Amino acid sequence: MSGWETVIGLEIHAQLATKSKIFSGSATAYGAPPNAQANLVDLGYPGVLPVLNAEAVRMAVKFGLAMGARIATHSVFARKNYFYPDLPKGYQISQYELPIVAHGSLEILLEDGSAKRIGVTRAHLEEDAGKSLHEGLPGFTGIDLNRAGTPLLEIVSEPDMRSAKEAVAYMKKVHTLVRYLEICDGNMQEGSFRCDANVSVRKAGAEKFGTRAEIKNINSFRFVERAINYEVERQIELIESGGKVVQETRLYDPDKGETRSMRSKEEANDYRYFPDPDLLPVELDAAFIDEVRKSLPELPDQKASRFARDYGLSAYDAGVLTASRELSVYYEDVVRAVPHEAKLSANWVNGELAAALNKENLEITASRVPAERLAGLVARISDQTISGKIAKEVFESMWADGASADQVIESKGLRQITDTSAIEKVIDDVLAKNPGQLADYRSGKDKLFGFFVGQVMKATGGKANPAQLNQLLKKKLGS
Amino acid sequence: MTDLHTSTLTELAAGLRARRFSSVELVRACLDRIEASQGTLNAFISVTRDSALREAAAADAALAAGGGGPLTGVPIAHKDLFCTQGVRTSCGSRMLDNFVSPYDATVVARLKAAGAVMVGKTNMDEFAMGSSNETSYYGPVRNPWDTSLVPGGSSGGSAAAVAARLVPAATATDTGGSIRQPAALCGITGIKPTYGRVSRYGMVAFASSLDQGGVLATTAADAALVLREMAGFDVNDSTSVDVPVPDYVAALEQPLGGLKVGVLKEFFDKGLDPKNEERVRESLRVYERLGATLTEVSLPNLPLSVPVYYVVAPAECSSNLARFDGVRFGHRCENPRDLQDLYRRSRAEGFGAEVKRRIMTGTYVLSAGYYDAYYLKAQRVRQLINADFVRAFQSVDVLIGPTTPTPAFALGAKTADPVTMYLNDIYTIGANLAGLPAVSLPCGFVDGLPVGLQIVGPHFSEARVLQAAHAYQRATDWHARVPRGYA
After folding, report:
1. Domain interval for residue B28
2. What is the reported pTM?
3. Contact flag A83-B325 (C-beta cutoff 8 Å)
4. Residue B178 appears among annotated catalytic residues
5. What is the pLDDT of residues A383-398, one digit of tens each?
6. Taking CB atoms and an 8 Å cut-off, how many pairs form between chains A and B?
């Protein structure tokens, strides 16, 4: 694949977390029985009219401000006309020529640690369509319009990404942001956050973009990466074997791990966009925009730099800890209890805790060890009641039983031995029991120092204070 | 009791409140006249006798108890594109022949709340597309003045019903003249309010940026009373305007003195029948006698109204009518083979020729490569027409001219050539494009057929145009003439 450059742009659809739909009063909750949340407006009944949900507008503005975009004081809803059974009115209401948000950007962190700015062309409001149902309806197609009219923010990037990894980093960045702003629950399985990827390849150094394919409706980070990588390989192979990429819409099949053609440009609909005469243009004044700006929470990037600065964390650690708002809250709850151990706390949150969560596929909010308890553990390491190594064992018990660090330490007798005479006694025992090794050490086998440390630790059940042990052992060995 | 049908709505409402007659008597009289006329006029698509009599009895009970609203017990008819809960709302189309609305339009709900009793749903051009009521799936409506002639359209059923005194008033809608043109051709009074004055919620859309609900009645005073009850902001219609509704009835008697009348040069063009023109000129002299001053005014872009309208209206209609796809409601073809077949046949069978023509035209003007040349250009010209009106209203209070170029024409006379038919709306379309309130009222006769006078005012000047119409009706009696056989 050398000699080729990949060009990727993403269109992300984020379902806005409003209580009611964008143009009707129906609820937006997921999982209701088919059509239980579809009123006459959602069903496109004769004579009904859309009324814009102000909360959806506020959320779009929040997003725009959070990525430094221009907020349009005048934006317009248009009709995108096409026939489909899950589109009750025969048109989708969407913003076309005049979107509410334009010209923003987000910064992603590349693998080499450097930052890259990804342009966001626009973000516009639109309504979602319903769903066709086939299961359990032999010979028929059912239609569920619960999702019809759910508010979406479509976030369109510039073709600024050059690899599947960059695309995933960008998508994660947007995912983090919408959840920080509490404008989207980010649930990808339920389709609340999904994307279309525009992918093309060109010879390295070429100025013109290659012909692109659009891969539709990808709903996981992993699939985005796989779909793009598959598509890039397909396009390169096609061109290298003398073929030509055609502009088309493709579908990613996660089971087969491949993309396949849905429809070509020639078969594409002419959507006949025009301004929706049922809705007035959205006019926003500076006071409203300012008010929304003031309501913005601390954003991920701001929070990451604050973490790095105030807690002395690496950019990487700060980035990980702020990747979700909930995680950053958890971390700060820990730090609040052990303010002088911010770095150690970060290691624990990003280390043992993250691993434990990962293993059981749990969100931070469902952690078996709440922030106060993890802080309790960090405090015991900090005051040398236990060593870092013992702490891992304590953590495992805490995770399994829901006990506090102190309970585990007491019940298992894991308190670290810091009594010099006690440690000295164990050292003496070990040396006495291993005369051969002692002789070898004394004749120059320095490496055996570790052996004696190990033996003492074994004898104390790992509870000897490591620093003290080192110091005392060295003294005893007379080196 | 025998003169109930020739009383005005205002008189009937007063008579009901004074308990000189009951609502049941009045409603029954209306129902009997409707049924007797159906064979000749065909003004109604549905007659709701049972519910009307029930509502009338309830109205009588309310009146007897000293309650009731301004219209309690008064019979009215609704154009069959206002959704009426539990009653078929057909829009004059086979597509909705089986459609029973599950909800009331805001207009219907408000008139119900004011106490009005619905006696039925009136015939109309299919989806309000037509100027002669000949495109209805339920057959044409005939003009009570001469049953070989059309009543105008698209609110032909409502106009014929009021003209024949089957009901004292009826609701109607006006997208390019559909209230005013049939009012003129049937010799009655009709008002198309300012765009946004009356809620469009529950009014099946033809062209959303032009459609406006209004009233057909025999007098401006009656129209004022009904409009007062149906107008006003509605949270369900984003294009309805949150401006308080003045008491149009109370404003009627204000003197006209000093009214500055603009005589629109472009309305007196070569298409205007000279005899129609005579009647209109006579009416202008009546206004002068009433103390108005006349000034000639020119709106240079107004002659472009018809071409602009026939781009904008079909464009919006092509999209508005997409929901009639045979999936959720309305006509569905037998045994569809697949989805495309379901769409094609349901729509091909459900829609008539004129509706199809406009859907095709609208689809074309919105298509990639044509949008700028047609739709966008039309919207720009629409702005120019609007600006012409705004300029005119800087120097005059109202514009007065003819409503139509000619009196009613024969059934079938213009059906072969759509463009000839479209030109019948040449004087009315401007007010829709600019969203202005306009009244048509009878101003004399030509060869035994009524002629309409049109009064157009600035936005939200309903009180003023109704007042001007009322003053004219105080000075003349054209509005009191009843077609032979219906007196």
Report:
1. 4-260+458-480
2. 0.91
3. yes
4. yes
5. 888 888 889 999 999 9
6. 103
Name every residue whose Cβ is closer than 8 Å to that of residue B195 and which is 6 or more positions away in sequence: B209, B210, B212, B239, B432, B435, B436
Residues of chain A with pLDDT under 70: 1, 266, 479
Which residues make Cβ contacts (< 8 Å) with residue A137, sequence separation at least 6? Answer: none
- Cβ atoms of A11 and A224 closer than 8 Å: no
Return the pLDDT at A444.
86
What CATH number did the domain enclosing B233 receive? 3.90.1300.10
Q: Which of B447, B6, B456, B475 is nearest to B222 (CA)?
A: B6
Q: Do residue B319 and residue A91 have CB atoms under 8 angstroms apart?
A: yes
Shortest Cα–Cα distance, B219 to chain A (Å): 29
Average pLDDT over every residue of B67-92: 97
Strand bridging mode A151-157 / A4-15: antiparallel
Is B270 an annotated catalytic residue?
Answer: no
- Which residues in chain A are closer than 8 Å to B207, comparing Cβ atoms? 277
Which of A26, A49, A132 is the mutation pick for testing B, counting most B CBs within 10 A? A49
| Residue B338 within a domain | no
Q: What is the pLDDT of residues B461-480, one digit of tens each?
A: 999 999 999 999 999 999 99
Scan for tokens 């078969």, then name that residue. A267
Q: Is B154 a catalytic residue?
A: yes
- Average model confidence (pLDDT) across chain A: 93
Domain annotation for chain A: domains and CATH numbers: 4-291 (no CATH), 298-412 (no CATH), 420-476 (1.10.10.410)
Is B436 a member of any domain?
no
How does pLDDT run across B258-277, given as a tens digit for each residue? 999 999 999 998 899 999 99
The total domain count for chain B is 1
Q: Which two tokens stand for residue B174?
A: 């006006």
Residue B439 lies in a domain: no
* B218 domain residue, yes or no: yes
Please give the average per-residue pLDDT across B125-129, as a whole number: 98
Contact between chains at B103 and A279 (C-beta distance less than 8 A) = no
In this structure, the number of other CB atoms found within 10 A of the CB of residue B52 comes to 24
Measure CB to CB from residue B83 to each of A47, A52, A272 and give the nearest one. A47
Dihedral of alpha carbons B33, B35, B38, B39, sign:
negative
